[in-house]
Fold this protein.
Amino acid sequence: LDAVAELVVAAADAHPNYDLLLAHLRETFDIEPHIPDWPDVRARLARADGGTQRAVLALMTTTTALRGHRRRRQRRVLEAAYAACDTPMGDALDTARRRIAEGR
């Protein structure tokens, strides 16, 4: 949730898809909303197990793709997350955008 929230802040707008996604995550995981500290979130992500890292990176990539068009600040946050996990981002963002456009 904190990683997704950082991407929403980086987008600098309140896209309705973000509101829906954050509400769903809070409800699903019974998480109280708070303001995340991105350096702390990134450090926790770097220490997480591989499965958690893959899940968070996939969710962050999808979140970034949901907006429809790119924001440099969002891309920098996403790239920092991939780097923290020592994982190449490659074309993950383009793939996520294509899947969303295809309805998947």
